## 1
Amino acid sequence: MSAPSSTQGVWLKCHVRELAPWATMTERVLNEIISTVEQMKGAAAAQVLHQHGIERLHEVIDTDDVTSLRNQVLERLRQPLLAMATAVGRQILGWDGDFYVDDYLILRINFPYEVARKTNPASENPGIGRLSATVREQFQARKVIDPVYAPKDYHRGHPPAAWAHGPHIDSWAGHSRDGRNIWWAIGEVPAEAGMVLYPELANASLPCERRTLYLQAGYRLPVPTYLPLAAGEMLVFDPEVLHGTHLNTTDATRVAISMRLNASRPTFDPACFYSREFWRRAADIEQGHDEVLHLRREDNFGAPVAAAPVQTPAAVPVIAGQLDQASGFIHGQLPAAGPDTQRIIVDAAPYRIMLVRTSDGTRAYDAACPHYGVDLADGGCDSGKVYCPACAISFDLQTGKSSCPSLTLQPYDIRQDGAAIRIRVAPPEAVAT
């Protein structure tokens, strides 16, 4: 088996064909999905997938069908999937002793955003998974509703099919500490639909927003590291490194499977209101024993961790602007050019404008990402693009466009005379009213 590619223990890539004896497991999952679609939607739907690939799944099912499809596929493949996850621990991670495998498996079916944003808002989140049937009743009995947690607010009314995971650390959201995640591409996963990581922050103390369980607003991120995968490739990574998912801005459905391993008995962060409590031992899986362990949250808290002070990166400079309602212009004064002035925020309520210096002059755009309305001042920026800190999509600094036609930054006309700027935000009559 060839050595997997890796980066300082943060992540590694391998292909399922390198994992004996699971070389054909991707095809097995694909065939199971297509067979289930045929049962649900008929032979013509299955034929579309046979001819054009699993990436056309959104053409033959809708979001209301995803729950049934996922449940049927995971029910039939649970045992081989758990056995394959165990093989990753043995063959890829080199774990010799007994270890733990999360019983919670996720079949991720994410439609293209242009399709997903028009789907049924009552449909179930396609990014969630399922436990074994034998422990679902226990799980429901242990379920906790937290009065602070409000994910729907964060997603700004988007239907669940159009959600993307913001940057987070898994233990913030009830997963075990010290785990390793497996993110396995069943179909091709391009950069515009895959995982993103922030390895520069691997040892940083980061603030969690308990309302969302994502990174707190106001923390400026570096440019995300994109991790595209070919069909059959696996990303095995440390989920305590900040990571998220790129909103699917392609024209193809993204299909992947997620699994989780722990080298030792799982422990949980007491700051989170719930925990993933149902696990299996690798030895049981290898011996064919269908046994699920209930590791109660309150019995398995991790040792207290001394909270290091959060070292917040320098913020994008903000200048006050004056809105002239008679003319429809915002007036302001630019600071002197410096090493961190490629972007400047102009704050003139109700407007918040992002100025970017490009090779063709200064451009002005609305500072909010059009997907979730998140402040782009918190995102990374390079010579040609600015990156949303929430959904990781990039916007061209020259045009404001992203890889998704419906997600483009609102541009504003800007006039500059030395350090003095005027930004046209509206016709005079629109501002005056």
## 2
Amino acid sequence: MTEPQQELDFLSDSTEQTSTRFVTFIGPSLQRFDFAVTSTNRFYGKKLVTDLQNGKSAILGSDDLDEEGYIEHVFKLNEEEAAELRLFLVQVVGDPYFTD
């Protein structure tokens, strides 16, 4: 017996060219970081940042880096590790922009 096929209700479905930067670095605490930073037109100037070690991703802009505890929470890092990651992220994430 086969299950009835259900239809999907797509809210969005698009393809675009993106740019991804793969970065591996070690901070002062000797914590290794392996990240992919994807630039796209999709997220209002923010970047899609993926931790390749644990599969956690976040859409980040400079405003998110200023939010206390956010990087720690998203990437499951302690304060020292998150501070090291922020040193890198402030160099690569942009300011968000909004269009009407």
## 3
Amino acid sequence: MTSPQVREYDVAISGASIAGCTAAVLLARAGARVALIERRSSPEAHKVLCTHYLQPCAYQVLDDLGVSPLLREAGAIANQARWYTRWGWIEPRPGRDGVPLAHGYNVRRSTLDPLLRSYAADQPGVDLLSGHTVTALLRDGSRAAGVRTTSAEGEQEIRARLVVGADGKDSAVAKLAGVREQAHKNNRFSYFAQFRGVRMAREESHCWFLDPDVAYAMPNDDGITVIAIIPDKKRLPAFRADLEGSFLDFVGRLPEAPDLSAAERVSKIVGTTNYPLVSRQVTAPGLALIGDAALTGDPLWGVGCGWALQSAQWLATAARAAAVSGSREAMDLALDTYRRRHRRQLRGHQFLAADYAKARPFNPFERLMFSAAARDESMARHMHLFASRLIGPARFLSPTALGRAAAVNLRHRSA
């Protein structure tokens, strides 16, 4: 039997999508030699089931990468948003200081993924290994020491002092490493479709909270609007009986519904009837998980792409020196730093999302905050900060914010 080819790197990253490409670029800029391993061979490969929404919280990461100008050239749309509730529309606008609201981008993954992968492959220090499937985790005792891959060229051993799983919600690296995970049931299902020629009430992203059903419509690059519906699973039998008819009927009944009368559907209606939220142990000796491999959020909130960018940057910031120095002690400290930051930044968001994924009605706090945001400009901006993941649950639901929301609603009832 022929022995596998052995290649040596500082970092081996499994998955050349948003998180993997971001980590590869940032670690390579710090001087690391990076193997960026992608199981798909096509340079145009991209994730289909996605919100195509880059949260404002990730804008700085895109700027640090240097890809914001490339996204704008590719037609990405600055994603200002409005949200429908039973109390009316929440429409955040700039305050009296005139400072624009923070934004991210709406951009289709068929545009974004090839752009990022090409950008990463052009970075000195990054080797893009397309068509390579990770089949085993190499170990040095209890420590990850690389991966074994198979491709048309045969088997290879990619040895590295840091292994990164950036391979999505069904992460092979996470399974091979045997890390702990916790799954939360999602009582909603999701369907997405892309249309050209949609007419909207306003040229911005729309989200409908129908309590418990949700929908959104988001203008994207090349004149495409992505429309998604996220209903309670109680409605699933009707959709299974007639997917297209049920989808179009659902969209047509939305308040200020997107006008599809002259629109062309340019994609299949794709979706999932079972999408649990998964939180994993994000580090082990010599190993880290980023993006959906670390934490798979509810697509309802459109957080996946933004958190992929952010978690990749958090890891690269923590581990860049250790990846080059070769010190195991330094790497252990770096991974602990990353683990603590990931937990601090995202645990609260995931907790609230997992609770709302039960398809329950709004709780009293949500009713208070959403109703106030529909009635008051400052509360609408506060909602924007939270929906954009620029602030966490503790600040969103702080005593000051709750008191201000209560005062807004009291004034409304007294008017």
## 4
Amino acid sequence: MRAAIRGDGGRFVYIVSALAALNGLLFGFDTGIISGAILFIDTAFELSPLVEGIVVSGAMVGAAAGAAVGGQLSDRIGRKRFILLSAGVFFLGSFLMAVAPTVEVLVAGRMIDGIAIGFASIVGPLYISEIAPPAVRGGLTSLNQLMVTVGILSSYFVNYAFSGSGSWRIMLGAGMVPALVLAAGMSRMPESPRWLYERGRTDEARAVLRRTRDGDIESELSEIEATVEAQSGNGVRDLLSPWMRPALIVGLGLAVFQQVTGINAVMYYAPTILESTALGSSQSILASVAIGTVNVVMTVVAILLVDRVGRRPLLLVGTGGMIGSLTVAGLVFQFADPTGGMGWLATLTLVSFVAFFAIGLGPVFWLLISEIYPLAVRGSAMGLVTVANWLANLVVALSFPVLLDGIGTPMTFWLFGACSLVALLFTYRVVPETNGRTLEAIEADLRGATGLGSDASEDD
């Protein structure tokens, strides 16, 4: 069943999705801003390498904690109120970082900000996937990942704008502005119809569907009703059921592979990596802006393609391109002459790597985990998978400088390439196609063991 997307309902669902995707912008901005701010924080507080690592990774610790509780919390209080809560936590974390008189307060602010990032990484794609019609669900849910890339790019521009004055407090405090916009915008938006129906608020669910659809809503409402009636009521215990195992394997596998293939090592440390070439500090920052720009552009490409060609093809092509890019990057750092244009050649390989990530593992991971889990445990399952994602992120962020120092830049990139090869094989073997299917149809396949891992892409 393909829902109509023209008319007032179609326009409204785009507005709702765009506002919810501000979660992604805050996610990206608050993870990316530290890459430039840390240069000046280090000078202000005279950080040791260990403390510098703690400051950078503090947000990831908070994000893992936020994701750990965020899924169940979103199931309990609703998607909309959870978004409003995350906006408030974003504001508090940014404020504390901006006024931090000591390193301890700065780290506390980073961890609070990280909790909000963990919240946002769950609720943005979750809310959009539940409110969007199946025909455009892939593109709209991927809008959240697009805004993550826009947030990262915005943070690079803010870093560059205030790098002359070294105003790291303004850099870190700038996140308060989109947090306020998110809170103001979402206060007027509806709750997820699927969450409402599960809570017995049928009339409200029907009203939301009428606002976000232009065609007949009764068939979609009947599918939601049938799904809710089929729920076992065991909540989190369903996550451990045998019929849930394939979906958990897919989600947890993609969560880890998205990070251990090296994307955030590049995003967090691009200026550091490029400074090891003949590029100066300002050129390295400018190169990171180029990387961020390509990240945004290729995420737009993914959004345009994901509902046309499907999830699996983008994952396979993207991961294959990452393998090639990382292999070439290792060769560049192994053999290129630092004084002979190596810096810009290295930049091109990193740009290529990020481009392929942005059409595959970047947006498709978040889209898939918002689609493949049953309604009763969707928030909890996404929370578990997101915790795994942030823990893998934390491991990469902490280990990357150690790897550079221990085995060198070429071997580090080749290690990421080997992880990408395993990710490609994993995707080929176990990741399902969900394109064009209702969330209820995907769940019916899962419960009936009729082939979650098959390449079904027909309309329902």
